[in-house]
Structure formats: structure tokens, C-alpha cells
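Step 1: inspect the first sequence and its C-alpha cells.
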Amino acid sequence: MIRRKSIEKPIVELKDVRKIYIMGKNRPAKRAHKAIRKFSKKVYRLYVKIQKLENSRFDKSKKVKKFKMQLKDCEELLLRAQGLFSEERYLQAFRAIAKKGLRKHKDKGIVVHALNGVNLKIQAGEFVAIVGPSGSGKSTLLNMIGCLDRPSHGSVWIEGLNVTEMPKRNLPKIRLEKVGFIFQSFNLIPTLTALENVIMALRYTGGRDGSKKRKAIAMLKKVGLGSRLNHKPTELSGGQVQRVAIARALVNNPAIVLADEPTGELDSKTSKELVKMMEDLNRKLGQTFIVVTHDEAITKTVDRVIRVKDGKIG
């Protein structure tokens, strides 16, 4: 199979993604944060309106020009407010968006900028590692891409879809069809066999049971577990359990596979085997891998290393 690497539209794109946690009773920060989120939705609606007008079969060039000017002004205002918020100037950020003042209050809380203006593009077929010290925002970034969390500001795009603005009820379908997950602690169901664990990932995809079983068997064979189909996780080695987890992540043919410290609980020999297998799957199938890791063996293998520090990409 040809590798799915592309120089066209990225398979994953993050645009000015910020994730903010406000802990405690910091009223100015909460009010400013809420105002900025509300305004960012207005900007997105304006963007969608322009897209619809541009795709209309009627001549809407005058309206498009007018709305584009509005969009430019709104984007500049939003960036200014976000910048003020990042500098912890919450009263000024609120005033910039809401066009009115806010009474001063004693700050009794903490504002954490887990992600602070992340812009990132990942092409189909890339093997990418995300590295950084503990608390730098690596896992938060992975959660944004995997639709497990929403950004406070900015947008996340997967295969051309803006998943940030999707209703929450639609996100499980996106995760099912477009994202595969490999967890550090494997997260296999201990009472099920390797084959049954992989079939579980196909449970809500539709189709007949026989077809799902054949698909799961084929994927387990690809990761070298054709002779271990009916073994439970307790009857497998650590490396074999992780291979089952990889098969489960790949069986739906997702656009991207996200791995959070996949070698964290494995010995050095098994880790090398696992890295080699992911590399082979990336080269042969064109599967896009995004891996959060501290493992130097992975960083030497990947196409690109993304370094995160203090919520920003370095």
C-alpha cells in the first residue's frame, strides 16, 4: 500500500489553540475568559457565513467583501484580547471584548495556561513525536487532537473538519472513525481475549459480526499476534499486550493514531521492538502516528520532533 503522505491539506491542524484552567474565585479572569470564548464563536460563525457565500451559485461578491472586512477586524480584536489575557491583564482583556469596564476584585485563584497559542500542522503519513518536561502541556495537546477535550480558544481541524465547533454528541463518532488511541497502561479488558479486545473497537461501526471478526484477525496478524488470538492479556507478555492495543487502535483504519507514552511500562528490548513495529506500520501503511514520549529511541526514529514547553511549541 502506498504511504498516505501528502503535501496538500494537513490531516491535523491546530490554529492558535489555548487551554486555560481557572482555579479558585478569580472573577476578572472568569469574566474575561467567558467573554473571549463567546466572541470567538461569533468570529467562527462569520467565517462560516463567508464560506457559504463564496460557495453560492449566485454572485455574492459585495457581501463577501463586506463580511471579510468584518472578519479581519474581529480577528484582530480577538487576538488583542487573547494577548492581554495571556499577560494576565484580565480587566483590559474583558474591556477590549465587551466594550465596558469591570470592577476590580482581589484575585483569589490561579490561572493555568496549559496551552498558550499553539499553531501546528501535521501531514498525512507523518510519524511525529511530542516531547517536553512534565507539565509542559504535552498530554493536553494530545487530548485536543483526540477530541477528548476542547480548547478554550482557537480551533482543531481533523481531515478538514473543525471538530472544535461540533456538538459534543458528534465527537464520539469522530473519535471512533478518525482517531485511534494507544494508552500507556494498555487499557485492555482483562476478561476478554486478544481477538475480543480488538473486536470491541468495531462494536459500533456497523456491519456483520463475521466481517468484524475477519478484520480483527487480519489486524492482529499484521502486528505479529496471529498465534495469540485466543489468549487473554494475563497470558501475554508486556510487548504482546501493547501489540494488541496497537491492533485495536488501527482496526478502524483511523486518520491518526495517538499514543501516550506507549513504551513507558516496557523494558528496553520490548520498547525497541514496539518502536520498530510502529515505524514499519507508518512506512508500509502510511499510518499517521502522533506520539507523546520521553523515549529517545522514538525521537530518533520519527519524521519530526515537536518540543513543548510552558504550553507553547518551541
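Step 2: inspect the second sequence and its C-alpha cells, then contrast the two.
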Amino acid sequence: MSRNTYRFTRSTSGGPGKSRTLRVRSGRTVPGSASGAVLVLTMWLLLIIGLTLLGLNRVTAVSRARSHGQLQRVQAHWLARAGVEKALDLLSFDVTSDDGPLDYWYDSPDDFAEVPLADGYTYSVLASQADDPTLVRYGLIDEASKINVNFASRNLLLGIDGISEELVDCLIDWRDRNDTVRPGGAERGYYSQLDFPYEIRNGNLHTQREMLLVRGMDDASFFGDATHPPLAALTTVWSYDPPTLPDGRQRVYLRRANAGELVNRFNFTQSLAEKVVEEGRNADSIFDLVSVRGDNDAQVQPGQINQITLEWLANHVEELSAASNQNERTAKININTAPKAVLEALSGMDDRAVANLISARAGSGGFINVGELLTRGIFSSRQFRRNAELLTVRSNVLKVVSIGATPDGISASIEAVLDRSQTNPVILYWHQSE
């Protein structure tokens, strides 16, 4: 046996004493052992490759699903945008001087209820009902159906069901331009001492949700609860009364009116026009003119007016204003669209007057002018004089809440506030879901 040969002996099946000799040269591997190692290594490699491919496949599937979801979110956004465009289109065809439930923009399921743009791709324009939040109509929300907290008097705000005197004082302190604290209110000093302080507005609120920053305003008050309707559905910061009438004429501002204008516009006698100018300079209300009359010996031509009566004012209430000028903004409430809770907030209102108004507008589809409240016996003379200057039958600012939906249930929403008082509508507010 050579020097580099080794003998290994083991028993064989041939019985005791028999042996098998394996000779292995120095520096070489046993052939059977090498094949097993390669097999194990191969199996491990195949396992690693399989797991890697499985992981890559899963990542690809997740990426594909994520990309599909992102695509559908983009599609849902543009579906919602289509709802806004449809609303703008309908508004462009609304040329009536009064606005209410008979208008297409107010409630039109054909135009706004799950309108399909492709198979399974739809948009809807929804408006909740302030009187019954469980009911939904398909149309726009009239901001003039609400009370504008930027312009409303303290008494009007106090008329809202469920609102406290303290909260009203805090709202007025928030919007006024001084640092004088009302009895139940809060000014800069209160907000600067909070754990997370912020500045008071001391001016008109810019958005409705800004009300949540006001001391005393909580979610239950703003969003409503089982006992009170939501302030979010009864109030606004957007509505305003434009200085021009639907026919393009300017409103007459009593404090700067001249006699010639009144003679030409309303066919007053000269003496009545001069007395209206004199009385109007200090008038706090157009109803201060009731019973003002021209000279007894004035020559009155057929059709001429020589005395101001309550009935005459009822027919011209929206043409006159006791404000200083057209730059002094006010906001009015549309009696054709205002919910019951808003009508109840008006001064001196009782259940009978509110019920009569709601019944009358439902029967006729709405009022053509505010004066009908008096001439049709819906309001008493006292109720009419107290509230007529706060009321209108027009709506210039409307809110669109549009929701786009895809076949896979992905949705997106857009909330836009539109001012249509100008030739081209102006977007006052825009919020879209992420």
C-alpha cells in the first residue's frame, strides 16, 4: 500500500470477518458526499429564488392595485367636477327674477341623481334638508335660505333654536372690529390665553367652519344633536344682497336719494318726493316713511303718488333701502327656500305665521315678491314691518356638494360655493376630498 493510501474497513453483508477496502487518495473528496452537498445547495437556491419571485409578484400585485386605486380616485374627482359643471350649466339658464323649489337647480333627480357618464361611473349633487336631515334632495343649497352670521342682528341670532346668549355675544365679539367684551362674550384676551392660542378675527368670518373657533361653539351646536338642528344648516357666511335688481336697475338708497330720481322712478308728486328725501336722510327703516304725504293742495295727476302707504311699500320693499349706500353690505333670507327653523328666528313670528308661509309657498311653488306676505294676509302688519327688509325672493349665492363614484366604490367629493350675481359665476369657496 502506498504511502498516501488509507484503508477503511467495515462489515459487509457477507458476515463477520469480511471487509471492504476503500482507497482514497490524499486531497480528494469522497464522490458520494460531494453529490449530496450540491443537491442541498441547489435546493436552497431554488427556495430562495422561489421566495424572491413570490415577493416580487406580491409587490407587483400591490403596486398594480395601488395604481388602480389612484387611477380611480382621479376618475372619481373628475366625476365630481362634472357635477359642479352641470350645476353651472343649469344656473346659466335660470333667468327668472325669483328663486325657489320650482327651479331646476333646486331639485332635479334627472340632472343630479347618480348621473352616469360611463358604465358604473356616476356623479350626484346632494342637498340635505335642514328641517329633516334624514331627507336628501338632488340639487343645490341656497345660501340665502340661511342666516348670515356676519350681518345678522343680535335679536335675529337669538331667535335660532338652541343658541345661547353667551354664544351670540361671542359670535358678535368675534366679528366686530373692537376689543370691547360683551357681557357673555370673548375678545382677544381670552383667545390669547388658551393652551394653544390663536388670533380673533375682528372682522367677517371667511368660512362657515370658522365658527368652530368661537368660544362656546362645540360640535353638538355646530353639527346638531337629537334636540336641536345643526347651526351648520341654518347659518352661512356667504350670502349677500346685491345692489342691483334682477332687471338691472339700482336700488334706491333713501339717505342719498334726490327728488328728481323719486319722481321719475316712482311717479311721486314733487312735494312728496321732497318730503321723502327729507325723511329718508335719517330713516333707520324704509317703514319710517309710512304716512308721509305731499302737500294737500298739490295737483295730483292720474297715476301719481302723493302719499306713502304700507301697501305701496309692500310692493316696492326690495327697491328701497335705508342703508347708507350700496357698499354697506347686507344679507337677506329667501322666503321661498328658508327652512322652518330659520323662519321661526324672525322677529315676532308665531307658529301660525310660519305655518301659513310654508303652506302658501308649497301651494303656489313660491312667492314672486316679498310684498305678498302682507297682501295675501300671511304676515300681520306688525310682522311685515319688522321683517320685510330682511327678506327676499332671490338667491345669488349657492353651494354645490358633488360626489363622484366609480364602479369599485371609490368616491370623491367637491364642495363649491358659487356667486352668480355677475355675468360669469365666481367661485367663493372650493374644497375637494383628498
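Step 3: confirm your contrast with the notes below.
Confidence is low (pLDDT under 50) at residues 5-30. The first strand starts at residue 115 and ends at 118.
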